[in-house]
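Look over this one:
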Amino acid sequence: MSDNRLQFDGARVLADLNALRGIGAYKTGVHKPTFSEPHMRSLQWLAQRLAEAGLAVTIDGIGNVLSTSTKSGPKLLAGSHLESQNYAGWLDGPLGVVYALEAARVINPNPTVNGAVEVAAWCDEEGHFGHFLGSRSYVGGVTEADIDAARDRNSGRTMREALRDVGLAGRARARCERGRHIGYIEAHIEQGRTLESGDLRIGVVTSIIGIWQYRIRFSGEQNHAGTTRMDVRRDAGLALTRFCVDIDDRFPKACGPRTVWTTGRITLDPGAPSIIPGVAEMLFQMRDDDPGVIDRLEDLLRSMAADVTAQGRCSVAVERLRTGSPAMMDATFQHTIEAASAAFAGGRSVRMPSGAGHDAQVLATIMPAGMMFVPSIGGISHHWSENTDDADIITGAQVFVEACRRLLAA
């Protein structure tokens, strides 16, 4: 039996995850918004565990936990995040951090393995202040002006205020040392039902989808709800509602096999029961890993808007708010995760895209990156009932550690 199999400790992995679950516990999940007291306590918990594992640790000026090893040989970067969505699950983020911690514990002291795992916990992957601010800062994608502009989406508190309140103001933001790492690897719960429904244990991520977001604004005429005849109304809310139905009727003929779209927010102005809405607005999002599919759907979206405007009752404006190019995962990393799955998960793996965004897509812009999934019970995530069987957590950790070992040995 290999050294890796002798040293790996599944009970330790579960104990670490449950320790993090106990910080900011909410029902069976957690509530750890970015820079909240439970989030900061989790960062300190991780820093202590990493130091005990022989790594030098820092928490930088944007809240990233970063560790380095003095061991000679190649370095592999691994991690995820520790903050949560509001009143959400206990594994989204911490699973990948604890897997990386376990890989460092197993691999780094082993003299037969050339090189070391360096662990990171990226700040604000969940987007309380912005999109992937921690990992984007690490790759040089966040300016001081970006930090000045960032605000907590719930409280309105600025990021500058938050950094000051938690004692991080004035600290330098760490930047990656180009060429230091052979790549980045991240583990995560699937947040879907592909693995569970297929009786599979490991998802080998091929790509992380891009996210495109739009504001679609309908302008009609505000008027009295009791005195304005139905045949002359210019009801912006009604136009928006019909538009949503039209999207669901027409998009399936133009989308890809894994395209998804969501109308996440609708607002009516003035939003009163006795007033016909003069303005209605929807936030609309599309996700796919093929920009060509998105281009086709965006053209369709704009064509549909033009058709509504041409009918004369309401005008429609489509504004793109966010463009998110997909990230392709490195072929060597995919093959290595698959090989590790053959060794520890009976080969019960499948190659699949990620429908959610992850820090791996940011790291993939500067180094080879790979990602693996473990099953989610019922496909539930971003809710406190999120869970994964203990046996699947342990199997996933074994696969992850073995994949790290193989990548360093390559």
